[in-house]
DNA sequence: TTTTATAGTGAGTAATCACTTGCAAATGTA
DNA sequence: TACATTTGCAAGTGATTACTCACTATAAAA
């Protein structure tokens, strides 16, 4: 991976996240990355290939982040760790997550699959804790996770700490 | 509002929701609506004007839907009605909501303002019920609402009824 | 009847789109 | 050194883009 390749990926990630994939021309990406437009196609074949490369990068990162949750044994800790996820995102990664969340509405497969192991871990935790309907509870937890992440990425709630506390409260017993 | 104007708005709504605003050409909209391309610009000035007209339509509809929640007095009923919102969406309105939720990531102002009265009603309800931090609780409730709506619009959870039940359970006391 | 206004068309327009090509410079590798 | 490969650029390509313009159709008002 040369420096210019990285520049292209970084510029594309920013622009795709800010303006959307379709609204971002390869010309804009090239200018933002400080390279010729042709180089994008040399390295990534076409515009979709560029998006695919970004998603590959993203998938690797998310695997690392989510691994900790899935490997946890204590059921209550699993739930708490899932709830904490959106609150411990590194602000440097915001553009990455914004891209993922925005693309969800255009491309289906990318997001749901990625969270499947988390959902399974949650379901398992709820089973261990004796919840009435672990399947529904895990579905609900992922909805909450999604909603919290959206709020943080879009309008940064005033008192994040208090919101997290209120969330955990709902899963005390 | 002539029939062709309505056709344009309806076709644009569908296409914008399915493929995104930027990825939908005015040519496509005209063909789907069965009118000449020029007519779009006669009635809506430009492509953004078309989007603005759609959002105006949408804003009127949401006002009607949300009015019922805001006018409710009993605090527990307010919370339940907010939670139920995503579950009682008319499937015919799915494309409308998908467009709104997708556009959230490109245009900021449209969505947050619209939910402000709901958030206020929720905060008021939590205050009446003696919750520790009504501000944080109302923020959390809106996150949950957002997450639930997203799940329903994107991948239609298996047992919606059970999820709603689990949600209400969290606000029993 | 003439005028005015609105609704609608279809063929343009310049600009921008994703993408290709030919060629030069840099970088390995023997 | 010589040669092969990769990296990079500039200048293209045809297709598509949002939008304009000159024009017609309909119909109500003057």
Written description of the protein model:
- Two copies of one chain form a homodimer.
- By secondary structure, chain A is an all-alpha fold.
- Chain A folds into two domains: 1-44, Homeodomain-like (Arc Repressor Mutant, subunit A); 55-169, Tetracycline Repressor, domain 2.
- Helix content of chain A is 75%, strand content 0%.
- Chain A contains nine helices and no strands.
- Chain A has helices at residues 3-19, 26-33, 37-44, 47-71, 75-84, 94-103, 109-128, 134-155, 160-169.
- In chain A, helix 3 (37-44) packs across helix 4.
- The longest helix of chain A has 25 residues, at 47-71.
- Chain A is elongated.
- The termini of chain A are far apart.
- The relative contact order of chain A is 0.10.
- The model of chain A has no long low-confidence stretch (mean pLDDT 95).
- At the A-B interface, helix 6, helix 8 and helix 9 of A face helix 6, helix 9 and helix 10 of B.
- Chain B binds a DNA duplex (30 and 30 nucleotides) through residues 2, 4-5, 25-27, 35-43, 46-47.
């Amino acid at each position: 991976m040369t420096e210019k390749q990285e520049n292209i990926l970084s510029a594309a990630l920013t622009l795709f996240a800010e303006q959307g994939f379709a609204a971002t021309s390869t010309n804009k990406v090239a200018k933002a990355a400080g390279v010729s437009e042709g180089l994008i196609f040399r390295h990534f074949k076409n515009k979709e290939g560029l998006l695919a490369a970004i998603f590959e990068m993203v998938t690797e990162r998310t695997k690392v982040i989510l691994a900790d949750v899935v490997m946890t044994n204590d059921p209550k800790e699993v739930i708490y760790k899932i709830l904490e996820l959106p609150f411990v995102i590194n602000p440097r990664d915001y553009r990455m997550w914004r891209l993922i969340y925005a693309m969800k509405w255009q491309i289906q497969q990318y997001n749901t699959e990625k969270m499947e192991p988390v959902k399974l871990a949650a379901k398992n935790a709820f089973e261990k804790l004796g919840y009435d309907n672990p399947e529904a509870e895990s579905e609900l937890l992922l909805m909450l996770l999604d909603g919290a992440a959206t709020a943080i990425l879009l309008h940064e709630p005033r008192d994040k700490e208090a919101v997290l506390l209120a969330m955990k409260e709902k899963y005390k017993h």
